[in-house]
Amino acid sequence: MSNDTSVRSTALEPRKGTSRSRRVLVVYGMVLATLALFVLFAVLCPRTFPTPLNLRLITAGNAVPLVMALAVTVPMVAGKIDMSAGYALGLWQVMAVSLQIDGIDCWLAIPLVLVGGAVVGLANALLIELAKVDAFVATLATGQLIFAISYWRTGGRQLVDPGSQQSAYLHGLVDWSIGPVAGPFVLAVALTVVVWVVLEFFPVGRYLYVVGSNRHGAESTGIRCRHYVVGSMMAAGVLSALGGILLAARQAGIAQADIGPGFLLPALAAALIGSTTIRPGRVNAWGTLTGVTATMIGISGLQQVLPGQFYLEPLFTGLTLVAAIVIASLASHKRAARARQLSVEP
Length: 346
Description:
By secondary structure, the chain is mainly α. The chain has helices at residues 20-44, 52-61, 63-77, 85-101, 106-129, 135-154, 165-172, 183-201, 203-213, 215-220, 225-251, 264-274, 285-305, 312-344; strands spanning 159-160, 177-178, 181-182, 254-255.
């Protein structure tokens, strides 16, 4: 029996010898499709779509979805799905406002919320690694508990900061822009860069990919897989908390318990679609950004082509999620075939 425990890449990047045009299509196909989508709606709605005002609106509205997509991306790199992220977003949005209503200063409420996010991520990780509960089931269960806490904290009502005195400071964090691009989206893109750097250039990122693609092989090489899963879940918790803070800041002193779950499925769709581009076959930060960008362009464009049709956003999100699942499944089968091929090569 062979004692070779090396971990070999099964990513779907084009092999050597592949033509340049095919390589570009495989690696950047989704990016090109997103650009084509933008051009299409710019042609269909030249007076409203390709304008600075529209860019400001869609970037302002998609900063939180991008942060949420990053929150589900990090655990997916480690082979886990965090179904509690949307519920956590709702809770931390509520807490960011309610703590200030209770008289806690904004600059103390923010770190408290971030620490709370890390604690929730740790609780998820303990269920997954110590109790050996499937990540999907464990995080779905904790998500429901988080949802209950959100309703308990709000009493089932909308929370409003009287006069928005404290929340005004929080709103100042996002009430700025760089040209036509809203400030919160700039922050979210900066966060994407940070996640990309960590995943691509730091050992922790490489180990996370190994754990997610071949945990048995990773354990055989001495990698402490449990530590990396715990770290990825805690990072997801902190990112969800940051998304809640940005959402609370955008709403300027208004919070409600049921707003978070609606962000979950678009985030999963963006991360799954993102796994088909930039680094095909692997979840990655730039791919996630591409997935979010494609979604926000598609929804904004459809709403302008067919104004007043309120079903368009969930319809587009649903179709995108179906497409993401199908593409990711096909990529997974292809990656498994590549792995089997590598395993029999001398």
